[in-house]
TrEMBL record, chains A, B:
Protein's UniProt name: LacI family transcriptional regulator
Keyword DNA-binding attached: yes
Entry-linked Pfam families: LacI, Peripla_BP_3
Source species of the chain: Leifsonia shinshuensis
SMART domains found in the cross-reference section: HTH_LACI
Superkingdom of origin organism: Bacteria
Assigned keywords, A-Z: DNA-binding, Repressor, Transcription, Transcription regulation
Length: 348, 348
DNA sequence: GTGAAAGCGCTAACAG
DNA sequence: CTGTTAGCGCTTTCAC
């Protein structure tokens, strides 16, 4: 309320120059020479008046809203989306862009995705980010084609949009290497049974580490089930019940690991002394609240959010190696988060 | 890209009227009579051209950005913030408003809060929502005074801003009543030890139910500790270790309940047969993944988000019983979510 | 009932 | 190096 805030002409007046000059210096307009002394005067005037540009006028004139849309699946289901938002937010702020977030359903008719994109289009965002809840391939709504876009945590089935995804293989390598370096050689793997990149990537990483350390692969040490707590429990229960049970378990995700904890407890195996466990996802709510804390692999959600916005900005500025970027999704590191669930195996 | 989208003059032309008329009918401008037949023609023209107003021009002209800022604490920490966002989002869409979300730190210098509000101000939002991570009292950044505001999950220390919070007492009543109706009379309460509304409200609800059912209050059945998993475990361990242990536990939150589960397991008490447990917060990641599923009380985050936006809209439209609203925070229901952790006590 | 026209605050030709 | 000026697309006053 109060007094209507200062406009560019107020600044011009106070600095004793024209609005053009003010516009030039405040925007660092290229191909424009303004005396350093004038610039200083203008900037000072702007500051003393507390001048901030009127976004609407700017947008109207430049045809750029300064808004970028983030279409995110299932914002409220896990904190994952939250971290993407955080990363995107921070990067956006860096570039004076505003993030407009729209929640979308995971498995919707595709129709609704269209509508969600439309909502963003109606708000005339300059570009859009599309974030999925888990690493997978997607088909983009057709109306998304109209705008620069970047995919987060998924790849484009058509392969024409830049994408950033977690390095699943690398994450698994970190996890299993940690186990091997702690002295484990019989390492069970409780894997997901969905046909998604994470399933294959984490398995791939598991195999690579075994190979690299000359540990022969034992197919009986790998079992698969839906990646939930209960199936994890059942798988672990079975595998840990064997006479030649593994001394460590690498779990597809923290929920399966949570099930494994329960199985271990029931079998009288203490973690980490009798059994080491490593999870994946680093879901704080689970990993930090288990006893002992679960050593797991973090997904680079925040970093993917940052990368996506940075890429969008480059695209918007026409430094677009768009094709190049879209060609191969960018992989981001999945670092190991050490808590208390891994120890050296006890001698038999 | 493609063709630049239709403007109001295109619509006017196609409908054979002036832009004024188009504006009037599309906005249902009051005190304006346009022949029904003309309205129809205009609307039809708009639809066939796929016309959508240029937000920037609208904003510039009306001095209303159509943006509302949501300042939310710790977006990525729990899904709570996500549900508030969802509710606010849905309500905002209903009113053709766009939500701009800014993450803020929980315990920051107050300085940074100022900056976050400033960021919103710079983006010229029409109003702001301030959402805290847990129910408490806050002091608002001074620069927030400039705009209509509504508090979510907290109350204003100064008492001048409308607020919506969970009905803690009611939630606790629902939880404990459920226990009593299942036949429990010795009900332990593992409470938080912070001086926050939830602590007092949930205790109050606990007492009320006991009173209402003629169960005499036993102070030894209430213990307090920080509301984390480990303290919850320790408290439960102690209380359940007594000879006259309670047959049911009401826990301040799901994390404490998670600790109680562990204590029960260690003591060989099976849930729900030997011990019933009710939590609070309904954190899916925990409650749904425990064995058995935890019966708990849900916080009305989504609903608070909706309420806040609706209230903001009313405020914006000047139907402002602002003072009235601010006077007493609005309480929203905390419904019980039944899973599998409650059963009738077994006869001794 | 309908229309003409004046800006909202800013950017970017273009002129000087 | 700096200033004048014409709109961006829309709402709204005022006249018809």
């Amino acid at each position: 309320m109060a007094v209507k805030s200062a406009g560019i002409r107020d600044v011009a007046e106070l600095a004793g120059v024209s609005v053009t000059t003010v516009s030039h210096v405040l925007n660092d307009t290229p191909h424009t020479r303004v005396a350093e002394e004038t610039r200083a005067r203008v900037r000072h005037a702007a500051k003393t008046l507390g001048y901030g540009p009127n976004r609407a006028a700017q947008a109207l004139r430049t045809n750029r809203s300064g808004l970028i849309g983030l279409l995110s699946e299932e914002i409220a289901t896990t904190p994952h989306a939250g971290r993407i938002i955080l990363g995107a937010q921070d990067a956006a702020r860096e570039h004076d862009l505003t993030l407009v977030i729209i929640n979308t359903e995971r498995e919707s008719s595709g129709h609704s995705h269209r509508d969600d994109v439309q909502a963003l289009l109606d708000r005339q965002v300059d570009a859009v980010l599309y974030a999925t809840m888990y690493h997978r391939q997607v088909s983009l709504p057709p109306n998304l084609q109209a705008l620069p876009a970047v995919l987060i945590d998924s790849t484009d089935r058509a392969g024409i949009v830049p994408a950033v995804v977690p390095d699943e293989v690398g994450g698994a390598i970190a996890a299993v290497t940690h186990l091997v370096e702690s002295g484990h050689t019989r390492i069970g793997f409780l894997n997901n049974d969905d046909d998604v990149p994470a399933t294959h990537g984490r398995f791939e990483g598991y195999r690579q580490v075994l190979d690299a350390h000359g540990i022969s692969f034992d197919a009986t040490l790998v079992s698969t089930a839906p990646s939930e707590t209960l199936p994890g429990y059942e798988l672990a229960r079975e595998m840990l019940g064997r006479r030649d049970r593994p001394t460590a378990l690498f779990c597809y995700n923290d929920r399966m690991a949570m099930g494994a904890y329960r199985a271990a407890t029931e079998l009288g195996l203490s973690i980490p002394d009798d059994l080491s466990i490593v999870g994946f996802d680093n879901q704080e709510l689970i990993a930090a609240n288990l006893f002992p804390g679960l050593t797991t692999v973090a997904l680079p959600h925040y970093e993917m959010g940052v990368w996506a916005v940075e890429t969008l900005v480059r695209l918007l500025h026409g430094e677009g190696e768009y094709k190049l970027l879209a060609d191969k999704p960018t992989l981001l590191d999945c670092p190991l988060v050490v808590r208390g669930s891994v120890a050296r195996p006890t001698a038999h």
